[in-house]
Amino acid sequence: MFAACLPTRIITNHCFFASLTMLSLDKLTKQYKTGDLALNDIYLEIPDGQVMALIGPSGAGKSTLIRCVNRLVEPTSGSICLNETELSSLSQGELRRARRRMGMIFQEYALVERLSVMENVLSGRLGYVSFWRSYFRNFPQTDVDEAYRLLARVGLDHMADKRADELSGGQRQRVGICRALIQNPELLLVDEPTASLDPKTSRQIMRLICELCKERKLSAIINIHDVFLAQMFAERIVGLQLGEIVYDGPPDGLTPDVLTTIYGEEDWESTIEKVKEEDFEEKRKDSTSLASGK
Ligand SMILES: Nc1ncnc2c1ncn2[C@@H]1O[C@H](COP(=O)(O)OP(=O)(O)OP(=O)(O)O)[C@@H](O)[C@H]1O
Ligand SMILES: [Mg+2]
To answer: Is residue 166 in a domain?
Structure first.
C-alpha cells in the first residue's frame, strides 16, 4: 500500500474552496556524496493544474529537484508527496507504479533514434503493458489510437512512420511530449525543454506544453534557463539559488531586484524592456493569425 499524505485545503474569505495539492515537498534536502548540497530544506506546494517554472543559474539545483521528485536521484531527507502518495518511502514496485503518474520531458528528447515516431510515442505505455506485449511491441489498439490522437494534436500525425533520427529538434521534442502524455500522467516534469532549440521553436514548444497542461488539467514543473520564456508562459515562478528558494510568486514579480537576487548583477532593466517588446510583437502575431483563421 502507498503511504498517504494529507490533502491541503485553501480557505478563502468568502467561500470554502477546496484545492488539492498535486505535489508537496517538505524539508527536501539532497547532498551528493561529493559534499555538494544541491537542495537545502525545500518546502514547495504545487496545486492541482498549476504550471510552474523553476528558474535559477546553472548549478542551482533545478534538475536535482525534478529528479528527486521521480526518485531518479535519492533525496537525503525530507518528504515528497504526489497527490496523497508519499514517494520518498516507496518500494521498487510501488515506485514503478508511481512513476507512471509522472511524465518526463527532457532537453535532449531521449528518443530511440532507430525507432519510428509511433514506436517512440508508444514507449510511454511500457509501464502499463505486460512484458511480452512490450517485447513484441504489441500494444493495445486503444494505445495506438491515442498515440495517433496525440500526434495529430502536436501536428505530427503524418510523420508516425518516420524514424526519430529523421526529425528536426522541434519535431523530436513534440514526440517527447506525446510520449510523456500517453502515460496519462498527473504531473509533468520538464527539464530544459527548449535548451537545444532556436528561439522561435522554443516559444512554440513552451506554448504547446502549457496549452496541453491546460487542456488536460495537468500540473507541471518546467526547469528552464530562459527566464523570459518562463515569464511568458508559466503562471508561477520559483527561483532557486544554491539549493534554496529565493523567489516564489507571479511572473510579473520578477523585478530587476529579484532577478539580481536569483542570477546576480546584470542590466535587467534593459533586458526586461527588450523582452516586453518581443512579447508584444508575439501577441500581435497571435491575434493577427487568430483573426485570419490561421
Ligand atoms: N551526480 C552528481 N554528483 C555530485 N554532484 C552533483 C551531481 N549532480 C549535480 N550535482 C551538483 O549539485 C548541484 C546542483 O546541480 P543541478 O544539476 O541540479 O543544477 P541545475 O540547476 O540543474 O544546473 P543547470 O542549469 O546547469 O542544469 C551542483 O553543484 C552540481 O555540481
Ligand atoms: Mg539542470
So the answer is: no
- The verdict on the CB of residue 36 being under 6 Å from ligand 1 is yes
| Ligand 1 atom closest to the CA of 33, numbered from 1 | 4
Residue 121 resides in a domain: no
Q: For residue range 3-39, what is the model confidence (pLDDT) as tens digits?
A: 455 444 333 333 333 458 999 999 999 999 999 999 9
Task: Retrieve residue 105's grid coordinates.
Answer: 520531458
What's 250's domain CATH number? 3.40.50.300
Closest C-alpha to ligand 1, atom 28: 59
Mean pLDDT of the chain: 86
CB within 8 Å of 37: residues ≥ 6 apart? 29, 30, 31, 242, 243
Q: Which ligand is nearest to the CA of 55?
A: 1
What's the number of domains the chain is made of?
A: 1
* Nearest CA, atom 24, ligand 1: 58
Q: Which ligand is nearest to the CA of 240?
A: 1
Domain that holds residue 15: 1-49+56-90+225-288
